């Protein structure tokens, strides 16, 4: 059995929303509202959902790039939310992030070599600049870039190549966990596949654990061991990839799943069109926050928020359809 690398319990990240004449705090935007999951070493958790559902805030709250409001994040059993600056600095070496837009996170005035070298020197890796240069050249090769990239600037690269630079910088410090925040969303489909393959190769060779954030189930399908589906700051369904694809149970997951292309065009499947936009998280709908868009909505749904129900080992769904309390279990 694999060890748990990360245990997240009831994680909440709320942002105050100021309003009124005195600009005092009127309400809270519940960007992350009670997320729980365990991630085993060497596995990948795919986090999916539409924009604004709290996926990126979840990733950043785990790393404490954004301070969570409540809840627990344990990394190898150590509580991250109560760590002081010194401990957190050490932890940053273990947990890295890859951003959606690497260009925005790469200093345009620095050569690629010095961008990656900086990650090494910040964490005291390498005896001197000569040794660090050798390490950077190895890293460039590892991510499929040529040694000439060392002296070039970020703007000289394509989107896919820039993502490779972002990945090289993340793996430079030999982390255990990488949070990849929509790392392929801005890329062409053919390039997406190459970058996904690179993530998989690095996972195999370095034993990395990933949280892989995407708005599209088809992107996380191949890379994930487990998938969490998020809606308005909550995890509405969590299951192993195989269970989720075999038995998508939450009506929101079913709608996302219906948009995933099937390899065999003769197989006809119903496309569930989600009507309306994701509601404003600072003023979410009552009860089940998905109820205004749910085609299975019942009277109870607008009144009471559903509890998580384990419908099979490790497959958890937050929906009244599966809660025996309402006598409507399927
Ligand atoms: Fe739909 Fe009700 Fe389930 Fe929410 S609780 S997903 S509204 S059936």
UniProtKB/TrEMBL annotation:
<dbReference type="GO" id="GO:0015833">
    <property type="term" value="P:peptide transport"/>
</dbReference>
<dbReference type="InterPro" id="IPR003593">
    <property type="entry name" value="AAA+_ATPase"/>
</dbReference>
<dbReference type="Pfam" id="PF08352">
    <property type="entry name" value="oligo_HPY"/>
</dbReference>
<dbReference type="InterPro" id="IPR050319">
    <property type="entry name" value="ABC_transp_ATP-bind"/>
</dbReference>
<dbReference type="InterPro" id="IPR003439">
    <property type="entry name" value="ABC_transporter-like_ATP-bd"/>
</dbReference>
<dbReference type="InterPro" id="IPR017871">
    <property type="entry name" value="ABC_transporter-like_CS"/>
</dbReference>
<dbReference type="InterPro" id="IPR013563">
    <property type="entry name" value="Oligopep_ABC_C"/>
</dbReference>
<dbReference type="GO" id="GO:0055085">
    <property type="term" value="P:transmembrane transport"/>
</dbReference>
<keyword id="KW-0067">ATP-binding</keyword>
<comment type="similarity">
    <text>Belongs to the ABC transporter superfamily.</text>
</comment>
<dbReference type="GO" id="GO:0005524">
    <property type="term" value="F:ATP binding"/>
</dbReference>
<protein>
    <recommendedName>
        <fullName>ABC transporter domain-containing protein</fullName>
    </recommendedName>
</protein>
<keyword id="KW-0813">Transport</keyword>
<dbReference type="GO" id="GO:0016887">
    <property type="term" value="F:ATP hydrolysis activity"/>
</dbReference>
<dbReference type="Pfam" id="PF00005">
    <property type="entry name" value="ABC_tran"/>
</dbReference>
<dbReference type="InterPro" id="IPR027417">
    <property type="entry name" value="P-loop_NTPase"/>
</dbReference>
<keyword id="KW-0547">Nucleotide-binding</keyword>
<feature type="domain" description="ABC transporter">
    <location>
        <begin position="6"/>
        <end position="257"/>
    </location>
</feature>
